[in-house]
Design a protein that fits this description.
Layout lengths: L8 H16 L8 E5 L13 E8 L8 E7 L4 E5 L1 H12 L7 H17 L3 E5 L7 H6 L3 H28 L3
Parallel strand pairs: 4-5
Antiparallel strand pairs: 1-2, 2-3, 3-4
């Protein structure tokens, strides 16, 4: 059975968006990569899971890496596109190397994507640096769990000190 027949209303709209997106930006490759938008399978849960990822995928070399460069949510009418610096930083964290993309080609591709998404009534924002999460956050300072443990141990140490102090004072009382 054709998978398009199983799609719900929101999933069908998302599939249409993805197809038109890819047709609109086909003339903006980035090296050997091309931009694509993911398509939800059968349902988006009434639009709750309508977020579509925008990725640079290899056109020829099947062993080349795929990079997420943004996302779009047709229901909320918002889209996020990532700068090359952002994508390079994530690539360094995940793969240990930069993308190697030509900055001018990347800018033209992302510009075409932004223009397309805007014509669909979406507010487009550009992210210039990834948010520190996971290992990156741990490297930058103490984790929340560590801070909680320090506070708990400090309170316990103070309580023990007070109890010992009371016992010692009672032992010295006349």
């Amino acid at each position: 059975m054709d998978p398009r027949l199983k799609r719900t209303k929101f999933a069908a709209h998302s599939a249409t968006l993805a197809e038109q997106f890819e047709a609109a930006i086909i003339d903006f490759p980035v090296g050997t990569h091309r931009l694509e938008m993911t398509v939800p399978e059968g349902s988006t849960g009434g639009g709750v899971q309508a977020l579509q990822h925008i990725r640079l995928v290899p056109s020829e070399d099947e062993t080349a890496k795929t990079y997420v460069v943004g996302n779009a949510d047709r229901v909320k009418k918002i889209a996020e596109l990532r700068s090359l610096e952002y994508v390079d930083q994530v690539s360094m964290q995940r793969f240990g190397a930069r993308t190697g993309f030509d900055p001018n080609q990347y800018a033209a591709c992302i510009g075409a994507a932004a223009k397309f998404l805007s014509t669909w009534g979406m507010t487009v924002t550009q992210m210039s640096a990834p948010v520190a999460t996971g290992e990156t956050a741990k490297k930058k300072g103490l984790s929340t769990l560590m801070i909680v443990m320090i506070v708990v141990w400090s309170v316990a140490a103070i309580a023990i000190g007070l109890v010992v102090g009371v016992i010692v004072m009672r032992g010295h009382a006349p």
